[in-house]
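Kindly inspect this one:
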Amino acid sequence: MRRDSIFYKLFQQAPTLLFELLPDPPANAEGYRFDSVAIKEPRFEIDGVFLPPDDETGTVYFCEVQFQKDERLYERVFAESLLYFYRYRERFSYWQVVMIYPTRSVEQSQRRPYQGLLDSEQVHRVYLDELGELHQLPPWVAVMVLTTVDKSQAPEAARYLLSRARQEVSAPDSRAIIELITTIVAYRFDQLSRREIEAMLDITLQETRVYREIKEEGREEGREEGREEGREEEAIALITRQLTRRLRQELSDEMRSAIATLPLAVLEDLSESLLDFTTLADLEAWLAAQD
């Protein structure tokens, strides 16, 4: 499960969430925006950067989500952060780093070269399992903790958070939280079909943006692009991309050829059916049933 991508989606939806984890958030927290940046020579990619409003010279926050042990993590994080700060020194007056771990056991073991920084006010280490009971946390923070809940307890916790999102959170944020909860569950139970996840969460995935986007692409783009002469290949390419993403593997040339021969009406059916596929065998069985 790519938990880091889940967290960065969280931050995109609610940039101020980062500051709920800090003891001394900036007064202008509402004005910050979340971004990812690249630094050339040497090439660095920083996935989580919180930038102050463009018209202010404030603190830049670097965020790193780490769910696997990496014994060179602090070397990389501090090198990337300080190089970025150096390159844009006129833009920022201060910098801070926020490290998010599921538990202390994942943290880098050899910390002595950086202990001074780690003990300073410029570096904040957050351990999700120490934030408190999921039921007592603010909804957005609770969604973060959901990524660490034991798999056997995750369905119940997810249903609880879905209920809270509907009851306690305003409409736009509520929809965003529901999207993220269903995405987390889909990642953690990727062997389950769409209908099984719906039953687990007591929710209709057709109502979520993730499902709607896939369905829209498959039905609308596939239908419109397929109807236009000379654009049938784009409809087939769209279905192929969806299948590659869903099955997490490239399709064989034989499989691609079989899909390319399908009529547009059947491709439309495939764009919906593929949401229930979990293995290549599911696709093979579906194609065989069309013969």
About this structure: The beta strands are 33-39, 44-51, 59-65, 94-101, 123-127. Residues 6 and 72 are 23 Å apart (CA to CA). Residues 209-227 form the longest helix (19 residues).
